[in-house]
Design goal:
The chain is rod-shaped and about 145 Å long. 61% of the residues lie in helices and 0% in strands. The protein is an all-alpha fold. The chain is built from ten helices and no strands.
Length: 329
């Protein structure tokens, strides 16, 4: 078997380059989502080794090497961030941000893997604030496994070689870096271009539907108003027609009574009742004619009185019957 060539150690410039490439791809809303782990690291490998980049490539790095290096960087940064959280929880009075960082680095040296101190100060400014993308393989799984192993190692009893007692102010302070402090954050991943377009399209469709419903509701209200108006008009017309029919029917029946021959009625009570009905009908019609003539001028009052007397005389003759043998009452 041919022996594999071992890659040389990463320089500070290479660490900066890989961190910039990692952040550009992971936080890019177009290519940073909806892709597999292999696709993600293939993009990092391509961009890292791209000869057209501003960074001068001294040695091509394969995908596996880049993935492992980024894992080492992110793990160290995540643990230092956990130490900073613990120092901040102590609420040190008058401590500046740099003081807290220095104390956190001292606390980090309690871990056997970091006894020589934090080695990634050159990438700390650009990596320290990433939250959602603090994972190498699949945003959180790798950190969770590593931090779980580290947390379990902290449960062991400290040895005599531990620098805890030699560190003033940190003797009662245990290193406790959990998953939440490294990878689990409330920060949300930037929304992708496709999702943004889909959301905008859905919002536009919803607005269109709401406008359509509003317009149809307005049309329905207008139709109901018109329907109610039409029904009211039809009701008024039908009511007037019914009243006219009733009035015509009453007028017809009253005429029958007016033209009845009282001499042909043998029963005196019926004859008296019929005569009273004739008088009532004649008085009613005389009043109706008087009301109709009331809209005319004052000069026509005398003529109206004569007409009323004439009409009443006609009704009286009708009431008497066809003969001259109308009894006196």
């Amino acid at each position: 078997m041919a022996s594999q060539h071992r890659s040389s150690s990463y320089t500070n410039e290479e660490d900066l380059h890989i961190c910039h490439v990692y952040l550009d791809i992971s936080q890019n809303p177009i290519v940073g989502i909806n892709q597999s782990k292999d696709q993600f690291w293939a993009r990092i490998e391509y961009d890292y080794n791209n000869p057209q980049s501003e960074f001068t490539i001294t040695q091509a790095r394969p995908k596996r090497s880049l993935q492992f290096r980024m894992q080492v960087i992110l793990t160290a940064v995540g643990k230092l961030r956990g130490c900073i959280r613990q120092i901040e929880n102590l609420n040190p009075s008058g401590a500046s941000e740099q003081d807290i960082l220095n104390r956190a680095k001292t606390l980090l040296t309690q871990d056997a893997k970091y006894q020589k101190g934090f080695k990634f100060d050159h990438v700390w400014p650009i990596i320290k604030d990433i939250e959602k993308f603090a994972s190498v393989n699949n945003p959180t799984s790798t950190f969770q496994r590593q931090i779980g192993n580290f947390a379990s190692s902290q449960s062991e009893s400290p040895t005599s070689e531990s620098p805890t007692s030699a560190t003033p102010g940190l003797s009662d302070f245990s290193l406790n870096i959990n998953n939440e402090e490294i990878g689990g954050s409330s920060a949300e991943r930037p929304i992708g271009v496709k999702k943004a377009k889909l959301k905008r399209k859905n919002d536009e469709q919803l607005a269109t539907v709401l406008d359509t419903i509003k317009g149809e509701n307005q049309q329905l209200v207008e139709i109901l108003k018109k329907g109610n108006l039409d029904r009211q008009q039809n009701f008024d017309q039908n009511y007037q027609l019914q009243m006219q029919k009733i009035a015509a029917s009453v007028f017809k029946e009253e005429n029958k009574i007016l033209y009845m021959d009282l001499n042909s009625i043998a029963n005196l009570n019926v004859r008296e009742f019929t005569r009273n009905e004739k008088l009532r009908i004649m008085q009613k019609r005389a009043q109706e004619q008087g009301l109709g003539a009331g809209s005319q001028g004052q000069g026509s009052q005398g003529q109206g009185s004569q007409n009323n007397s004439h009409d009443f005389g006609q009704y009286y003759n009708i009431m008497r019957g066809s003969g001259n043998n109308f009894p006196e009452y």
